[in-house]
Design a protein that fits this description.
42% strand; 0% helix; 11 strands; 118 residues; SH3 type barrels; mainly beta; single chain; 3-stranded antiparallel β-sheet; binds zinc ion; 2 domains
Length: 118
């Protein structure tokens, strides 16, 4: 999964093609993401204690991650994302168009330490 929560992505396929919006949820197992305002559906809800008014609730449904491209914050193009190891030993994502860093992935590489139980 090369898309992270909080990334800006551009939708490539479907009704929302061309839309740029923020990633709200990433589901790595299903390879889907929820993008703000993309793939909105109306869920019809009955009156209930939680929602005494009932009516239609607008919510975003997940879209396949393959349907979007990450928008690079540096060159603001929809781009593919690469991975590389920095000189500090950490992995980072980078824009394949302008090769700007898109931020580290996780903490710095961990050193192998002896387990406390021996
Ligand atoms: Zn770029």
């Amino acid at each position: 999964m090369r898309v992270k929560k909080g990334d800006t992505v551009e939708v490539q396929i479907g009704d929302n093609r061309g839309t740029r919006a923020k990633v709200l949820v990433v589901n790595a197992q299903a390879n889907t993401i929820v993008v703000e305002g993309v793939n909105r559906v109306y869920k019809h809800v009955r009156r209930s204690r939680r929602n005494p008014q009932g009516g239609r609730l607008s919510m975003e449904m997940p879209v396949p991650v393959a349907n979007v491209m990450v928008v690079c914050p540096k060159c603001s193009q929809a781009t593919r994302v690469g991975m590389r190891v920095t000189s500090a030993g950490t992995k980072e994502r980078f824009c394949k168009k302008c090769s700007a860093s898109l931020g580290q992935i996780g903490p710095a590489a961990r050193m192998k330490t002896a387990s406390p139980k021996g």
